[in-house]
Structure formats: C-alpha cells, structure tokens
Amino acid sequence: MKPVTLKQIAEILDISVTTVSKALKDYPDVSKKTKGLVRDLAQTLNYKPNEFAVNLRTKESKTIGLIIPEIVHHFFSSVIKGIINQAEKKGYLVIILQSNESYDLEKKQLKLLLNKRVDGILISIANGTADFNHLEEVLRDGKPLVMFDKIAKVVNCSKVIIDDRKAAYNATQHLIDTGCKRIAHFRGPLLPQNSIDRFLGYKKALLDNNIEYDSSLVYICECGDKSFEEGKLNAKKVLEDHSDVDGIFINTDMVAIGAITAFKDLGVKIPEDISIVGFSNWFMSSAITPTLTTINQPGYEMGKKAFKQLYKELKTLKKEKHIIPKIIELETNLVERNTTKPILKN
Amino acid sequence: MKPVTLKQIAEILDISVTTVSKALKDYPDVSKKTKGLVRDLAQTLNYKPNEFAVNLRTKESKTIGLIIPEIVHHFFSSVIKGIINQAEKKGYLVIILQSNESYDLEKKQLKLLLNKRVDGILISIANGTADFNHLEEVLRDGKPLVMFDKIAKVVNCSKVIIDDRKAAYNATQHLIDTGCKRIAHFRGPLLPQNSIDRFLGYKKALLDNNIEYDSSLVYICECGDKSFEEGKLNAKKVLEDHSDVDGIFINTDMVAIGAITAFKDLGVKIPEDISIVGFSNWFMSSAITPTLTTINQPGYEMGKKAFKQLYKELKTLKKEKHIIPKIIELETNLVERNTTKPILKN
C-alpha cells in the first residue's frame, strides 16, 4: 500500500490541502469538527507525515552522521552507544559509517553525509588520515563538526578527548614505581594524534626518571581488527630482541591481552618476569588471567559528551550565532590489577 | 554559508531552472556550452544536489533502518559491520537504533524509522518483545523487513538465522561424548526464539542419550550488558545447588567467560571437574585460559546476508512485483578447545 497523501485526504473530505495540513497541526483557525474528521481519516488511512519534506522546509534533517574507524571494537562500540542514546533523547537519528581506518573511505563517506544533508557530523579519524581538507570542508559548509578520540589538532572544531600523554605518562610511571627498569612500548600507528601522544607520554616518563630512551624498545601495532594477533606477535619479537625487558606499556588492552596470551604460552611469568600496563579498561581486562592493569578510558561518556557538544552547536546555529569550538577533556585513571607488581616502598 | 540552489544558479546565468537541472544531469537537449557554464558555476558555488528532494521524487531515501538489542556486544557489532559494508557497496546508508532489549523502545524506534521513510528495515528483536503487531505494520506499510538472529517465527517476512536447536544439540552432545553425565544449562531469557531453541536442543540431546532432564539444572541469564557478571553469579549458584554437575552448556560466550572466571577463583578445575561449551565463538574464546570450546556463529556473514536479502526485496518492489519471504539459514560448527575433555574412545 502506498502512503496516503494530504491531497488524497483533502479530496475525500472535499476540503483544501491547507485545511488538512492545519487540522493535523492543530491550528486554531480550523473547526473542531473538521479537525476530528481529518484526524480520524488520517488514522484510518494510516497517514504518515512526510518527514523528509518537513525537513526540507525547516532545513533540518534531524539526522547526524557518525564516522568511526572500526565498529567491532569495545571502545568504539561504547562510544556509539553513548552517542545513539543521547541523540535519541533529543530526537536525532544517527547514520553510522565505518572508515576501516582508510583515509580515502573516510573522505568519500564525509561527502556522502554532506550530500545527505545531515545536520552535523561526529568523527573519529582513520589512522591513515594525514590531510584534513575534507574536514575543513565540513566547516566551510557551515556544518557543526565534533571530533572525538582520534582527532586532528589543526582542524578548528570542537573535540572530545582525553589527555593521552598524561595517561601514558602515568602508565609508564606505574611500571617504574613497581620496579621495572627496561620498559618497552607497543605503540599504535604513526599518524593518529592519540598514538603519538601516548608514545610521548611514555618517553617523557622514562626521561623524568633518568631511564635512557631506546627506540629499539618501541614496537608498532596497526591496532585494527588484528590487534589480538599483533599483541601475540610483538610479545614474541620483544623476547627475541631484548631478553632484559621487564615491563611493557601497551597502546590498547586488546593488544595487551594478545601479548599476555603469548607470554603465558612461552612460560613468561607476569608480572614477575614482565609487567604489563594496557590502555582502555575494556571489561575483558578484569576477566583474563592475570587481570590487566590499565588506563580507564571512558568510551560511553565520550560518546555522550560528543553528541551533547554537537547538539549545543546545532542550537547555536539556529539562533544564527557563531560557533566557538570547545575542547572537552575527560578524566582517565590507572586501574591497578595483577599484571603489575605492588608499588615498591622507599 | 547556506547551500546554493538550482534556482540561484539559474538566476545568475539567466536560464530556466529546468535547463540547469538538465545540464547537471547531462541531458542531450542542452548545449555543450550551457552545460559547461552551469557545471563551472555549480562547482564554484559549491552546489550540492539536494538528496532529500531527489528522494521525494523517486520515493527512495537510499537509507535503511537497523534496530538491534545491544551494540556493545561482539556478535551484534560484527553483524552491524557486515550490514554497513554491504549497504555501502550498494549506495545505502544505515540508521542504527538500539532497543536495549526493550519492547517499548523497539516499537517507538520502528515508528520513528517508518516516519523517516527509510526504504526498508533490518531488525533483531528485543528479549522483551512478545507482541508483533509493530512488525506486522511494517509489512502492511509495504516496506521490506528482514529479521536476523533474534526473530519472531509468526511474522511473515524474510529471516536470516542459524539452526539454534541443532547447534545447541551438538554442543550438549559434545559434553556427553567427552564423558559428562550431569549437564547444566545457562540459558538466555524466556522469550526470544533463539534462547528457546537452544534450550530445546540441550533438552533433546539429553533425552536422546537417556539422560534425565532436570529443570533445576537450568539457569536463566538476561544476557544484556551484565552477561559477564551473570556468568560469575550462575557459576557460584550451580556449585551451591548441585555439587555433582560435571558439564555446562552456556547460551553465550560472554556468560561462559564469566563462569570460567568464577570457577577458577573457586578452585574448580576446567575441564576436569566441570566442562564448558559456549556459544558464538567470540574471539576472546581463544584468548582466555583455558580456551573455550564453543559454537561458531557467523555474525559478519549474517549481517551481509541480511542486507543482501533486503536489497533483493527493494529491487523486487521497484519492479512492482510481490515479495516472497525467504528463510536463510547459515551453518554453524563446534570449535573444540580446552574447556572440554577429549572425546572418549569406545
């Protein structure tokens, strides 16, 4: 059955389309009797207001676009949940696209969303993204854009982030405080800011504690959907390359859990031989043996805050005011578990 | 900057809106010169075709709706990934809503999607859904509807499923084949079909092997975002209630991993004291200790097949033909790992 139109309702009742429209919107200049007739017929014929048309008039689609690098990832799915729950409260629908960590795909998807006339865009950029012109274009278009987690510093939009450098510093400091002297780092890819910042936090903690920085102790992970395997692989490599390593700060929990699995298979004792600190506090961190010491990264909260900021900017635009980009920084904390030793007493 | 319209382009060039529209669409009855002028100006002014308006005319939004019970769940996020990847290939965008396993929310969301005039709907129903009128309405509206994983048998639409009963039978049979005699079942909630079918498969395997069915050995899990905790809780309960249990077939891997964690804490040896078979083959199943024997449930494949079926139905509708609902059953298999003993030789 094709959807019934206002025109058809008007014809059946022999009144004007305007009257039908006004009746459905409860305008005071339509009689109660007419309103009753229109509503009853609309219900009988299963009339649905054409939301897309309404949107054209109000210039709003009440739809926002979300681009994330990877859906099957506990952190990002928590973020998605935060965004969707918050968006629904405000009457917005969310179109989700996955960039697969590819710059080309991300660029294409952004264009697609703009063509779809979404009201605003939330994005966590792909590891491969080094050029930001596609993001600048969103702003030139006058669309609100909020970045979260994996951001581009140079793009002048709002951002919801954590202090990756500080969190990584604390993670590395914890390894030092528990007696580790030769600390490796499994870092993320070279480009994304959070992976750079976590690396810099690691390096600074070493230097502040008079531990020499050795670049051969830094291993790169792509951190895509092969994270678990990469953790296993790097664990084997680090043992081959450096028999004296006694601590590792690992970019994400998933990679850390891969590393723990490999170390256990190889008979390495955790935390006695090698201590490990992860990053994200994925709930599996407390389920594995030994339980993983990690940095708690609030995914759901990040999604919620990102949508809230976008919503604020949409309201600002409606008032024809200028958007002032805001940096929202969420707190992280170290969760001590069993992959690290107790802190040494002085 | 507000988006430029066809009308504005027409005014600047002093030609009709129709000519501008035809020029952009490369109609043969517009001169090359005019086409060149229009295209150059459209590019300079950053013209974007109004997709929503186009959609109104073709009666297509090129957008589909997806309702799932829970996003932060490895199986469902794999399904989402399969759907999104496939949809993008065919030029469709996906609006994702999460029902939080609530019937009321699911009903509301379905209405929202219909009002948004999505072209079709993919759904995995909430545990709380027992009345299916909201789903029947989608079909009455003439919209293609494809259900996956958690389906309602009585709704006459296409479905992508696995044979849950057979898979559960095989899981239980494996416990029997490896010597278990007193087998408990941690089942899902009472309503959803897959949870019923898994329970029935468990029961049938017992009866076929002349093992008495004992309802006190069946424990219910809500299987929401507290799955891991539920697994731990039920593991403790089963030990208190039945000291003689030597095997458990568990509805999902997440619950199984919770149970394994609790059993390890309590000093129960797996698989010697209690053997466990899970369901889904979440990748963490091979990361925990001991690695989990489980049923492999193809999430990504399910998402892909569900979109493909919806796409076929959209094409059928375009040809003004009648949709014939199809049941697509995907294969599952048992993955033997270390939470079960080797199969007994006769």
Which features does this protein show?
homodimer, alpha/beta, Rossmann fold, 6-stranded parallel beta sheet, 6-stranded mixed beta sheet, 12 helices, 12 strands, transcription (chains A, B), transcription regulation (chains A, B), LacI family transcriptional regulator (chains A, B)
What does this molecule look like?
The structure is a homodimer of 346-residue chains. With 346 residues, chain A is α/β, with parallel strands linked by helices. Chain A has three domains: 6-49, no CATH class; 59-162 and 299-330, Rossmann fold; 164-297, Rossmann fold (3-Layer(aba) Sandwich), CATH 3.40.50.2300. The first copy, chain A, contains twelve helices and twelve strands. Chain A has helices spanning 6-13, 17-24, 32-44, 51-58, 74-89, 103-115, 133-140, 164-177, 193-208, 227-241, 253-265, 299-318; strands at 63-68, 93-98, 120-123, 145-148, 158-162, 183-187, 218-220, 247-250, 275-280, 293-296, 327-330, 333-335. Chain A has a six-stranded parallel beta sheet with strand order 2-1-3-4-5-11, sandwiched between helices. In chain A, helix 9 (193-208) links the parallel strand 6 (183-187) and strand 7. In chain A, helix 1 packs across helix 2 (17-24), helix 5 runs parallel beside helix 12 and helix 8 packs parallel to helix 9 (193-208). The termini of chain A are far apart. The mean pLDDT of chain A is 90. At the A-B interface, helix 4, helix 5, strand 2, helix 6 and helix 11 of A face helix 4, helix 5, strand 2, helix 6 and helix 11 of B.
